[in-house]
């Protein structure tokens, strides 16, 4: 007799099997959905990363394009800064001595007390004996800090002014007045940007020279001689009217620097046309070429200085006007000029410190122009590779 349980059991088995198949299909479907979702998410992440990489590359490309388009300006700025730093470091002892000779009083009291500095070599010997190598380099740190942006801005501004004036005038080659104007503008821009550093450097050079006398009228004391760049800046700012004190004598400096820079660039470029003509023989040796380049800068610096040295003296006198032991209080630049001429005469007073200044400027400007052109050409060559 057939059993009816078998069909029922088979049906149950088939139903269970179907149920398992359905469950398996559901599970498989779920896994597939998860896989698809994961793949989609991964794709979106990768897409975002690619977009980010593209953005990064785009920013990098734009920055590279900007650098490439302005490579000449950037190279000029870097070369100008390094040129200034190299030139001032070479002549640091003479730079400090020049400042001391310019600002010391010509009274007999200083001479009798042994404080007055005399001749160049005698004074350098005294500086070395009293302070050693540190005395020679005193103030050079702040001088380099000042001259880096000063020289960079000067060279860069000169190129910019030449370009602007060339576009304005339509002249393929700038005339002498326009070239002198470009140099004057470059000098004024550089002075205005870095003058407080120059004033502080002058104060540090004199404060540590052994001529500082404690005075109730405001001269520097022995403690002031220990101040660094930051300390001296704070002292001037706190005791001499803030920014007004830090910019004491700025306009007189600008008036003096503008023609100096003008003549410097103009004479240098004019001498290059004579000493380094474009048809220079290829047989010329490298040492001779270097000497020709240095000669152009040296002659340009010395010639310019003879015309503008009185403005440099005036600048230093005004910068140390707060030191009562060194100079009286002046009511501006005109009053200072009158006082110098009345007390010391024009040539002796306004050309005080000319000899050490000439000895300093001649190699300084030579090294400056040579370093500038060498570094600029090197950077240009590296950019073409």
From TrEMBL:
UniProt-listed PROSITE patterns: SOLCAR
Biological process, per Gene Ontology: transmembrane transport
Repeat region (Solcar), residues: 71-164, 174-274, 288-378
Keyword field: Membrane, Mitochondrion, Repeat, Transmembrane, Transmembrane helix, Transport
First-listed, main subcellular location of the protein, grouped into a coarse class: mitochondrion
Membrane topology annotation: Multi-pass membrane protein
Pfam family, one: Mito_carr
Entry-linked InterPro entries: MCP, MCP_dom_sf, MCP_transmembrane
One GO cellular component term noted in the UniProt record for this chain: mitochondrial membrane
Location(s) in or outside the cell: Mitochondrion membrane
Protein family according to the UniProt entry: Belongs to the mitochondrial carrier (TC 2.A.29) family.
Name of the featured protein: Solute carrier family 25 (Mitochondrial phosphate transporter), member 23/24/25/41
Provenance organism: Kwoniella pini CBS 10737
């Amino acid at each position: 007799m057939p059993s009816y349980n078998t069909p029922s059991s088979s049906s149950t088995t088939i139903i269970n099997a179907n149920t398992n198949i359905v469950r398996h299909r559901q599970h498989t479907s779920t896994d597939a959905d998860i896989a698809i979702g994961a793949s989609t998410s991964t794709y979106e992440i990768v897409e975002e990363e690619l977009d980010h990489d593209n953005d990064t590359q785009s920013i990098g490309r734009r920055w590279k394009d900007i650098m490439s388009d302005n490579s000449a300006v950037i190279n000029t700025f870097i070369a100008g800064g390094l040129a200034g730093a190299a030139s001032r470091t070479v002549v640091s002892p003479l730079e400090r001595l020049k400042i001391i000779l310019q600002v010391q009083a010509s009274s007999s009291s200083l001479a009798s007390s042994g404080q007055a500095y005399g001749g160049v070599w005698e004074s350098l010997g005294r500086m070395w004996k009293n302070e050693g190598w540190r005395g020679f380099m005193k103030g050079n740190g702040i001088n380099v800090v000042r001259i880096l942006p000063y020289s960079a801005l000067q060279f860069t501004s000169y190129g910019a002014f030449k370009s602007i004036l060339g576009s304005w005038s339509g002249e393929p080659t700038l005339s002498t007045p326009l070239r002198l104007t470009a140099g004057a503008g470059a000098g004024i821009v550089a002075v205005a940007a870095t003058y407080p550093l120059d004033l502080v450097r002058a104060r540090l050079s004199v404060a540590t020279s052994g001529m500082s006398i404690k005075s109730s009228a405001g001269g520097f004391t022995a403690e002031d001689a220990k101040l660094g760049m930051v300390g001296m800046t704070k002292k001037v700012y706190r005791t001499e009217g803030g920014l007004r004190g830090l910019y004491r004598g700025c306009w007189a400096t600008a008036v003096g620097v503008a023609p100096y820079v003008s003549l410097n660039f103009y004479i240098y470029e004019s001498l290059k046309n004579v000493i380094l003509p474009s048809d220079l023989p290829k047989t010329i040796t490298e040492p001779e070429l270097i000497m020709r380049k240095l000669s152009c800068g040296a002659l340009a610096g010395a010639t310019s200085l003879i015309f503008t040295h009185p403005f440099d003296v005036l600048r230093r006198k005004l910068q140390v006007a707060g030191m009562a032991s060194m100079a009286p209080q002046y009511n501006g630049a005109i009053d200072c000029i009158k006082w110098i001429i009345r007390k010391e005469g024009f040539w002796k007073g306004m050309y005080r410190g000319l000899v050490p200044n000439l000895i300093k400027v001649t190699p300084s400007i030579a090294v400056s122009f040579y370093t500038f052109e060498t570094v600029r050409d090197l950077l240009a060559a590296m950019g073409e590779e």
